[in-house]
Amino acid sequence: MKKKINSNTLLLLITIALFLVMYAAGCIIYKDKGFTHLQTFLNIFINNSGLLCVAAGMTCVMLTGGIDISVGALIAMDCMFLSVGMERWEMNALVLCALVLIIGIVFGLVQGFCVAYLNIQPFIVTMAGMFFARGMTAVICTDQVSITKNEFFVKLANAKINIPFGAYTNRKGVLQIPFVRYPVMIALIVIIVIFLMLRYTKFGRSLYAVGGSETSASMMGLDVKKTKLKAYMLSSFVCSIGGICFCLNTMSGSVRQALGLEMDAISSAVIGGTLLTGGVGNVIGTLFGVMINGTISTLVKTNGKLLSSWSNIAVAALLCFFIVLQSVFAKLKDRNK
Amino acid sequence: MNKMKKITSMPLFLPIFCMLLVMAANIVYDISCGNFALNFFSISVRNGVLYGRLIDILNRGSEIAILAIGMTLVVSASAGTDISVGSVMALSASMCCMILAGYGNASVNELANPLLLGVLGGILIGCVCGAFNGFLVAYLSVQPMVATLILFSAARAIGLLLCNNLIVYVRVDSFKMFGGYLGFLPTPIVIAAVCIVIAMIVLKKTALGLYVQSVGINKKASRIAGLNSARFIFLCYVVCGLCAGIAGIVGASRISSADSNNIGLNYELDAILSVALGGNSLGGGKFRLAGSIIGAYTIQAITTTLYALGVSSDVAPVYKAIIVIIIVTVQAPPFKAYLARRSAKKALAKGGAAA
Amino acid sequence: MENNVVLTMRGITMTFPGVRALDNVDFTLRKGEIHALMGENGAGKSTLIKCLTGINAFEAGEIHVEGIQGPVVNHSTLDAQKKGISTVYQEVNLCPNLSVAENLFIGREPKTKFGTIDWKAMVKRSKEIMAGLDMNIDVTQNLEEYSLALQQMIAIARAVDMDCKVLILDEPTSSLDDNEVEKLFGLMRSLRDKGVGIIFVTHFLEQVYAVCDRITVLRNGQLVGEYPIAELPRVKLVAAMMGKDFDDLASIKSDESPVFSDEDLLIDAKGMSHRGTIKPFDLEIHKGEVVGLTGLLGSGRSELARVIYGADKNQTGTLKVKGKEVKINNPIDAMNLGMGLLPDDRKAEGIIADLSVRENIILALQAKRGIFSLLSMKEQNALADKFIDMLQIKTASRETLIRQLSGGNQQKVILGRWLATNPEFLILDEPTRGIDIGTKTEIQKLVLQLAKEGKGVIFISSEIEEMLRTCSKMAVLRDGAKVGEITENLTQETVMKAIAGGDQNE
Fold first, then answer.
1. Average pLDDT over residues A219-225
2. What band does A81 get if pLDDT is binned at 50, 70 and 90?
3. What pLDDT, in 10s, does the model give residues B218-249?
4. I need a surface site. Which of B10, B59, B293, C40 has the fewest CB within 10 A?
5. Residue B238 lies in a domain
6. What whole-number percentage of chain B has pLDDT above 70?
7. How deeply is C324 buried, as exposed, middle or buried, from its count of CB atoms within 10 A (0-12, 13-18, 19+)?
8. What pLDDT is stored for residue C462 in this prediction?
9. Residue C350: is its pLDDT beyond 80?
10. For residue C506, is pLDDT > 50?
11. Does a structural domain hold residue B263?
């Protein structure tokens, strides 16, 4: 049976095409700057492993029609907690990681409770969460703390996982083997797990149902409030995993870390086809959204002459384009009825 | 009991109550430090200008108060918040300084262009940003928070571009004046006062307030009664952008530079908080500008008090976040319903006991 | 209980503050029948349904469902669903962003042995369900890809698959075209043959006679009677719904019917329409004329008025006001031409709940004057006091929030809002609903007074009596089209016959 392409699939296709075009353009323009190497592509993942996790969690919240802007601050808090824990308190890295995940769940629980059971706008709740987490980061420590002492963590951060193909010899005659790092693996696992969850579990489908129509969902016997609560818990939990990835990348904690990351996560999800009104979206789209984000900043970096703010502007412009597109599609749908 | 209820249901109860609470905290603090008990309220003249904690709060709170005017309108008309105001402030500051210093100059001691041109440029870009937000919200029906998200993340970056990625210093006295002193009074206080008075007059002398509230409460009925809802929502966002523009220039003048990364940082929270603290529902509809203004200065008083208590500026958000959550929880319908149920139960128990 | 009875409701009584919504109502549904529940606005049919499905709690009476011991009390629609009572509303309560199969199975998805959703089984069983109802559609497509009619049938399929004994269809056909309605009827008949009891709430007479076996009529919260379809011809049904009991109002209209010349022509609509709500119509209204729009609820009587006023956009034809062709894009344009509309849905389109009585009264006039010429407080107070006095609005003060007033008083405030604009042409959609009888007379007198002052009025009401007393001409609407005008011999009988349509009339 031939499937009709609906507007939501169309949005996703536009995103994927956009990514391909953008990357291809990069390959052509910056051929001599190494853009064509596999490692450039892998670096996008390495640089954005934390963002990947966060965006995946954000997608789940956005599916219910909500939003979670506390993620950036939560990551800063996680990183600071990990850094200070290892450097000053000299605690075990794994224990700290477990603590970070628990903090994430509790954080999400409180936010979710306010949104689902107290009926407060998600934006207001998570904005308060954002300021709380950012402030707590400063409570833990106001300096920039680098992780150097914890051997296990340093080893983990520096470990390379080599890829068996795509190797090349650079100009100096040294063989370069493409590699990824552990955070990338963690992020990919998160993406896959959430993808499966959204498709094959009752909770996953409930997220879509709640976003589609809350009244319908409750009429069909779903517990709307619980679903929302769980969505926020999931977001904060996955965000904390992202925090660990982020920390493995930066190996430091500071108050101003991951500033504005929530906007990157939201724009990635939106560019990836997640509707802001809820009910439509997919982590695969979000994955492409993150990759577009990464490609833009790589392009700007590779150019070398452009100011880094250009990548912010480009992402914002794309975000604007997709928001308008979504709104136009929604209006067209209304008119057809 | 009844009297108590009467007082708590007064329109400006919440903001005034919070203000008094903050003042009380200050008095307690001063006493515990061994200072003069009313240190908080004392105003003195040093070097020919007014000096004192109260003046400081009024001075520092100017930007928030100006932002609160626009934010109040936006919240009322569209039941959403404009989260781009802080970034727009930075953009306006950059625009203004860029014009005054000339593109590409990092530091000047003389104006490259007339002062008025720079100020107007800053305000104008604020209005343009407001119009952009308003267009998305009013005519494309994008959720307010999402529409303003675009400029939230882009406006600072555009500001950096305008300044060629530099922090542009305009070391000229006439420009410094906006953030400095006008005679013995800090200029920001004067600017904020002028803005507030103008807003009050506009609300008093035109039907804007009625229109905005009407649209915010019931869009459909307002349309039947002859109001063009989209136009007024758009207008509110433009006004909000205008306010952000003015606030941005004041902010830039204070540090006589355009620091795109720091001007207006986190101001959107303070502005939204002012509106909520002013007793206005974030769900839109009826509003009281006076409440928001008192709310704005209360926020600044809280911040100043926190700093006075030795809380660092990085940690202060924790307390603000807790205040936000308490305020919105108290306003939340489920919480109110819960309280009503409890008091009904209590009354029942009392009645039972009496019988 | 009789053998084939699946649902009985006995002596159901419930009151809303100040109104007895249901007064000792009985209702019986048998297996394998389609049972129409009829009544005008406020008759209590939706309240009765809500009592049955657990949305409203009733005060007295009992509900019995076949196969369940003892009286049944539902606390939520979910509760009712578990007991075999399912409801399908006009607005489909499914998730448009999910596939058809998911909508059928949400909350009770088939699982694999790992506890995950078994998509294959779900799709397979969905296909079977849909095929069983003679619908061969792609169940993996999203619900929103299908027409409203199909969505409704899918909602019905879901209900049927969840073993429902009683299926309530609440105005399911309001937004369907003739073809889709026929399809829906086919489905209803096949369900009937399978033994499902169907309660069909509708205001389309044609459809009742096309598909139903039995009719229960309610009026003013009371049971009028239960009739087999063959024993109740249309006119009798309309009479039963509208009631013939004359209230004790004195006749207030003078007998001579005025004659209007073309010069006095105020509104001249030719071929105006709005897709999906009202088919093209012509209508002429003169100065000093009160035109009644009559027809059952949903016949297009409100919609016609809304198109003239510009509340719904006119899509065809032309409108002339005082001989000049005009284009109305928004209500404000109509207001500037001297029009006013009192909408029938007071809560959604009338009152601005959180504003005071004064602000509600001056709103339309202020909108007309524009943003810069604010009425002074003195003028506002004077206006508010004038109409509070004139319409005898019961309010603590003019600064009381309108939401705190009773429905009737709210209505008077809105009426005051329009009178304040001094309109030349006023549309009153159900101005007397929920108002006590004394005030009703006042409003009727007011309408005649306005006409005497040379204003044109469209008057819409569910009560024929009231219209007979005030209108000099009546336009009759049926099923979204204007089907005729009655200018002479305005009596209850002629009007009812015209509303009922069918064989007697044509």
1. 85
2. very high
3. 988 999 998 988 999 999 999 999 999 999 99
4. B10
5. yes
6. 94
7. exposed
8. 77
9. yes
10. no
11. yes
Nearest CB among C117, C138, C141 relative to A205 is that of C117
Q: Do B325 and A263 touch (CB under 8 A)?
A: no
Specify burial of residue C115 (Cβ count, 10 A radius: 0-12, 13-18, 19+): exposed
What is the C-alpha to C-alpha distance for residues C496 and C492, in angstroms, rounded to an integer? 6
**Candidate from A208, A215, A218 with C-beta closest to C98:** A208
The pLDDT of residue C502 is 60
Our count of domains for chain A comes to: 1
Cα-Cα-Cα-Cα torsion A124, A130, A133, A139, nearest 10 degrees, comes to -100
pLDDT tier for residue C252 given thresholds of 50, 70 and 90: very low
Inter-chain residue contact C81 with A221, CB threshold 8 Å: yes
Residue at A74 is within a domain = yes
Lookup: tokens for A303: 């150019």
CB-CB neighbors (< 8 A) of C417 in chain B: 225
Residue C148 touches chain A, beta carbons under 8 Å = yes
- Asked if A6 and C145 come within 8 Å (Cβ–Cβ), the reply is yes
Closest Cα of chain C to A275: distance in Å? 11
Give Rg (Cα) of chain A.
Answer: 20
B317 and A316 within 8 Å at the Cβ level: the answer is: no
pLDDT tens profile C369-422:
888 888 889 999 999 999 998 888 888 888 888 888 877 788 889 999 999 999
What is the pTM assigned to this prediction? Answer: 0.82
Q: In angstroms, how far is CA A68 from the centroid of its own chain?
A: 12
Per 3-state DSSP, chain C is made up of helix, strand and coil in percentages (nearest 5) of 35, 25, 40
Concatenated DSSP letters of B275-329 = HHHTT--TT-S---HHHHHHHHHHHHHHHHHHHHTT--TTTHHHHHHHHHHHHHH
The domain total for chain B is: 1
- Judging contacts by C-beta atoms under 8 Å, the chain B residues touching residue A121 are 282-283, 328
The single residue listed with the structure tokens 């349904």 is C49
CA distance C142 to A68: 27
Q: Taking CB atoms and an 8 Å limit, are A135 and B152 in contact across chains?
A: no
Q: What pLDDT, on the 0 to 100 scale, is given for residue B95?
A: 92
State the Cα torsion A16-A18-A24-A29 to the nearest 10°.
-160
Residues forming beta bridges with residue C201, ordered by sequence position:
C37, C170
Contact C367 B211 (CB under 8 A): yes
User: Interface pTM (ipTM) of the complex?
Assistant: 0.81
Q: Helix, strand or coil for residue A66?
A: coil
Distance CA A120, CA B281 (A): 11
- Architecture field, domain C248-338+423-506: 3-Layer(aba) Sandwich (3.40)
CB pairs under 8 A between A and C: 71
The percent of chain B in helix, strand and coil, each rounded to the nearest 5, is 70, 5, 25
pLDDT digits (tens, 9 = 90+) for B192-223: 999 999 999 999 889 999 999 999 999 889 99
User: Is residue A57 in a domain?
Assistant: yes
Cβ B76 vs Cβ B236: under 8 Å: yes
Task: Say if domain C5-242 classifies as CATH 3.40.50.300.
Answer: yes
The pLDDT, as a whole number, for residue C247 is 43
Are both C5-242 and C248-338+423-506 of the same fold? yes
From B141, C175, C167, C490, select the one nearest A327 (Cα to Cα). Answer: B141
Q: What's the rounded Cα separation, in Å, for the pair B194 and B175?
A: 18
Instruction: Report the alpha-carbon distance of residue A23 to residue A41 in Å, rounded.
Output: 9
B1 inside domain: no
The residue segments making up the domain with residue A143 are 36-324
Contact residues for B203 (Cβ-Cβ < 8 A; gap 6+): B209, B289
Domain containing residue B285 = 12-345
pLDDT tens string C158-206: 888 877 888 998 887 766 777 778 888 888 888 888 888 999 988 777 7
Identify whether A63 is part of a domain.
Answer: yes
Find the range with the poorest average confidence among A102-116, C68-82, C244-258. Answer: C244-258
